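User: what does the whole thing look like in 3D?
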Amino acid sequence: RKEVEQDPGPFNVPEGATVAFNCTYSNSASQSFFWYRQDCRKEPKLLMSVYSSGNEDGRFTAQLNRASQYISLLIRDSKLSDSATYLCVVNMGYSTLTFGKGTMLLVSP
Amino acid sequence: DVKVTQSSRYLVKRTGEKVFLECVQDMDHENMFWYRQDPGLGLRLIYFSYDVKMKEKGDIPEGYSVSREKKERFSLILESASTNQTSMYLCASSSGRALYNEQFFGPGTRLTVL
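Assistant: Here's the predicted 3D structure for the full assembly of 223 residues, as structure tokens:
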């Protein structure tokens, strides 16, 4: 059973659109949740942590649903510079982080 | 800002060669990690270390070893490189005792084994 699952995309959206990604995870004991962003041929960088109460950072909103074991990322007013791969990251129990394979976003003019 | 550096951005080696990939972090982080990233497979954990001289196997340790003689430096060793080890190798570090804190990544080393 895959531990962190994401739709690989690509999601093709026009500038200004709102786009949402979901990610499911298999371990109900997970405590740490993150969204990372990875640009083409670059290293992953933290976009935001995901808290139980949900959190917002500018145009980005992350939510956690423990009962259904999924997290989401909402991007409002998409910019060309948002084009990247978004990695869902979850810890499995008390161990290290597990990275999803990523969802590719392409924002077009 | 946390800085994680890796010794090479690109490396080309021949089958059977011994390969050393070096990673250095400057934020006094306790934990360091080595991943490889391949198209369609995502990031996979090779080895990690939570203290000097301590190492733990990740999900795909076969064909690799590691060394952590100093807190800031974590080396990945391919004892006898093979073509299926051609990949992007990413080093990361994190602070604290928990292994599931936010990780900071180096720029990666793209290794090609001929």
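In plain terms: Chain A has a mean pLDDT of 93. The longest strand of chain A covers residues 84-91.
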